[in-house]
Design a protein that fits this description.
eight-stranded parallel beta sheet; globular; two-stranded antiparallel sheet; TIM Barrel; alpha/beta
């Protein structure tokens, strides 16, 4: 795809599903309460965030041969019954733990654990139910999981309980807006915070006709600027922040296309990007199969992110994504060879 400034850009992005169009966080499994009871500037934005050149934010993903994989891979484990792609697949503690271990062994840099689906059309669950889904998994890790753990939540109580059990990352689809106490939890626990753009609320954000943006890239960048300022004002250090454009969260397919083609224009200095690039409904324009079969489109999203130096991609198919990135890296060849 050609970006607005005429340079070669990228394709389409992902992470959710709904009959209305784009989709949400979520994907893998469910452990229920019963189980638990037991205005951007044109130009001047660096093509690559300085964070990418630091030793680590969370750690680097590595392939099976130990080679560094960039973007780093965040593997999805949602213990919910209603996530869009394969909800209910991991409907026991044992199956969820097995999947978590598989994600780590496949080369993911981060495990992203969620207990509330935010797919389009979804209703919120109670805090008690969300805790009942995620705490048994975190308790089973006993603080010894081999890669950093991200808790995908918009609730302060869930973020705090997860942090007490070893989570070091807060992945907030509401960008600290839905719970007035969540920023304090992030500050006091020293959590890295993913701030995601979302217009509307999950239940209605993709229902009916999604209102057009005057300029989706400008609006998302302005949102990032406002939320970064709010996070810093709340005492969260800038170097603890990551930005996610929220592909499929209150956006038309063409809005997602524009965002994916313009990721470099969304950057704020020194803050890395994360893109939810997996199985989303708008990829169905190119592949009519079920969401769980959208690996080709999902890897196209990852390729687009790699081309634009995105630091993190959030995916369902971890092993395939890591292998794809390792291959892509090898095909780029040595950087110091010349005739």
């Amino acid at each position: 795809m050609i970006t607005r400034n005429g340079s070669f850009g990228a394709g389409d992005g992902a992470a959710g599903e709904s009959p209305a169009g784009e989709g949400a966080r979520g994907s893998d499994g469910n452990v229920g309460a019963a189980g638990a009871a037991s205005g951007r500037e044109r130009g001047g934005i660096p093509a690559r965030s300085p964070v990418l050149d630091r030793t680590t934010v969370f750690g680097r993903a590595t392939g099976f041969d130990g080679a560094t994989v960039l973007p780093a891979v965040m593997g999805i484990l949602n213990v919910t019954p209603d996530s869009f792609s394969d909800g209910g697949r991991f409907n026991s503690i044992a199956s969820a733990l097995s999947r978590a271990e598989q994600i780590a062994a496949s080369g993911a840099a981060i495990l992203d654990l969620g207990g509330e689906s935010t797919r389009p059309g979804s209703d919120p669950v109670s805090i008690e139910e969300e805790l009942a889904r995620v705490l048994p998994i975190l308790d089973a890790f006993r603080g010894e999981f081999p890669i950093p753990i991200s808790i995908d939540t918009r609730r302060a109580a869930v973020a705090l309980a997860a942090a007490e059990r070893g989570a070091t990352i807060l992945n907030d689809t509401a960008a600290l807006r839905d719970d007035p106490e969540i920023a304090s939890v992030a500050r006091e626990r020293g959590l890295t915070v993913v701030l995601m753009h979302r217009r509307g609320v999950p239940r209605t954000m993709q229902s009916g006709r999604v209102a057009p943006y005057a300029d989706v890239v400008c609006e998302v960048r302005a949102f990032f600027e406002e939320r970064v300022e709010a996070a810093i004002d709340a005492g969260i250090a800038r170097e603890k922040l990551i930005l996610d454009p929220g592909i499929g969260f209150g956006k038309r397919p063409e809005d997602n296309d524009h965002l994916m083609a313009s990721l470099s224009e969304l950057r704020l200095p020194g803050i890395p990007l994360l893109v939810g690039g997996s199985r989303k409904a708008f990829l169905g324009r190119f592949d009519p199969r079920a969401a769980s079969s959208r690996l080709p489109g999902s890897l196209a999203v990852v390729a687009s992110c790699a081309a634009q130096h995105v630091e993190y991609v959030r995916v369902h198919d971890v092993a395939e994504t890591v292998a794809f990135l390792r291959t892509l890296r090898a095909l780029e060849g040595p950087k110091d060879m010349s005739c």
